[in-house]
Design goal:
Distance between the termini: 43 Å
Number of strands: 22
Number of domains: 3
Strand content: 15-25%
CATH architecture of the largest domain: Alpha-Beta Horseshoe
Oligomer: single chain
CATH superfamily of the largest domain: tm_1862 like domain
Strand order of the largest sheet: 2-1-3-4-5-6
CATH class of the largest domain: Alpha Beta
Helix content: 25-40%
Largest sheet: 6 strands, parallel
CATH topology of the largest domain: pyruvate-formate lyase- activating enzyme
Number of helices: 13
Length: 443
């Protein structure tokens, strides 16, 4: 009997990438490959890349070097968004043997059948117009939380973004197939599903077997709420113009969808929002946050924001800072603008000096830490349900409340992947909340 080839994965970027890496990994395992840890060495290394990462090229080169240090004769495959955008650049990296773009990454098993170590990388990257079909995926491994891909691509034309060039037009799964995957996930023991996509609120677009389907994200949310076996559904990120009040109101009364929203803002300046070609202005964002807090005062709200966009003056930045400070939000994901080839923003001129971009990033990260602590402090003394993770971290285990408060508890193996009623006692120096078990109850 032939020893199975070993394969190791390294994933950069978003939850969507993690769901796709996991799905590709299952394809290879079903085909007889043995999945191993990256640091252990492998016959084949697969690196799933991201186009949002500021130093994508540098990161990719480092990971390739790390792989070949542990397994000098291994074949190295690079897939994902960066592989679609700059295939030849990746192919020139010493040690890379195969580069697969947006559609070809799902055919990895086919390419591995004839792959051998070579001086020159083999490149298969399609025209992005050909990435017009949907491939479903979900992550699995840590049974506590599963990332379920329901949408891909984007029809928006934000002036700073390369994702439409890397992933193509907006398209999505059918509700029927999402429900099938959700039931599969439930049968495997996962308690929480995080819905993922490039532009999640745009769910419903797509062409399946020549038949267009007219379904909406609100339809999807209502259908998933009926799935048994999954205790929690979480929405990963949704554009404010697509987060309709009917969705917010439904989540408020749902038993399964949790009170946690991540809503990209990018700038608190209407002038910059127009330059970015976002599809909303400040007033709409205020309305969405206000409605969430009206029906779910305990809800967690995360925000994406970009600093250093071309032409961002100190006044623009302070407008953003003060706007964020005034909102009842819970945390920020802060991105420092970096130029992307083939985007309109890169051609705008009036670049913000890098040192100023970094200073603004630091200011918003400090604001984020303050906002998060304020949010946590509001809930100290309450009892909330926590889903605990498996890992033993120096005698402690971590988990999240429904509204995304990170809780720490002395490790008890039988509590892993269970929902527990916990009293939130105090915030420790690391910023985690110390919890106390209310009932000796496992579900």
């Amino acid at each position: 009997m032939q020893t199975p080839r070993t394969v190791a994965f390294h994933t950069l970027g978003c939850k969507l990438n993690f769901s796709e890496t996991s799905a590709i990994g299952r394809q290879l395992t079903d085909a007889g490959y043995k999945k191993v840890e990256f640091a252990a060495g492998a016959d084949v290394f697969v690196i799933n890349t991201c186009s949002v990462t500021e130093n994508a090229d540098k990161e990719c080169r480092k990971i390739v070097r790390d792989a070949l240090q542990v397994s000098p004769d291994a074949c190295v495959v690079v897939i994902g968004c960066y592989a679609q955008l700059k295939p030849q650049e990746i192919a020139s990296i010493d040690g890379v043997d195969l580069v697969l773009g947006a559609t070809e990454k799902f055919k990895l098993q086919h390419y591995l059948e004839s792959l051998e170590k070579s001086e020159h990388a083999d490149v298969h990257a399609c025209e992005i117009e050909d990435a017009n079909f949907f491939v479903d995926a979900y992550s699995f491994g840590d049974r506590t939380r599963t990332f379920l891909k329901v949408q891909d691509g984007c029809d928006y034309t934000c002036s700073f973004c390369t994702i439409p060039l890397a992933r193509g037009r907006s398209r999505s799964d059918t509700i029927a197939n999402v429900l099938k995957n959700a039931n599969e996930i439930a049968a495997q023991g996962s308690k929480e599903i995080v819905l993922t996509g490039v532009n999640l609120g745009d769910f419903g677009k797509g062409d399946h077997g020549g038949r267009k389907h007219e379904e909406s994200f609100f339809d999807l949310v209502q259908a998933l709420d009926q799935v048994t076996g999954i205790e929690r559904f979480r929405v990963s990120s949704i554009e404010p113009n697509l987060l309709k009040n009917e969705i917010i109101s439904f989540v408020a009364q749902s038993q399964r969808f949790v009170p946690h929203f991540h809503i990209p803002l990018q700038s608190g300046s209407d002038r910059l929002l127009k330059l970015m070609r976002r599809r909303y202005l400040r007033d709409l964002y205020v309305d969405r946050v206000a409605h969430i807090k009206e029906v779910m005062p305990h809800a967690c709200i995360g925000v994406d924001v970009i600093v250093g966009f071309p032409g961002e003056t100190e006044e623009d930045f302070l407008e953003t800072y003060n706007f964020l400070n005034s909102l009842p939000i819970s945390y920020l994901h802060v991105f420092t603008y970096s130029e992307r080839v083939n985007t309109d923003a890169a051609e705008m001129g009036d670049a913000v000096p890098v040192n100023i971009r970094r200073r603004r990033n630091k200011m918003l990260r400090i604001l984020s830490a303050k906002k998060l602590r304020q949010f946590y402090e509001q809930h100290i003394g309450e009892t909330r349900t926590v889903l605990f993770e498996h890992e033993n971290r120096d005698g402690f285990m971590l988990g999240y409340t429904d509204n995304y408060i990170k809780v720490k508890l002395p490790y008890q193996e039988n509590l892993a992947n269970t929902l527990q009623t916990i009293t939130l006692k105090k915030i420790e120096t690391e910023g985690l909340v110390i919890g106390e078990l209310v009932l000796d109850f496992v579900c």
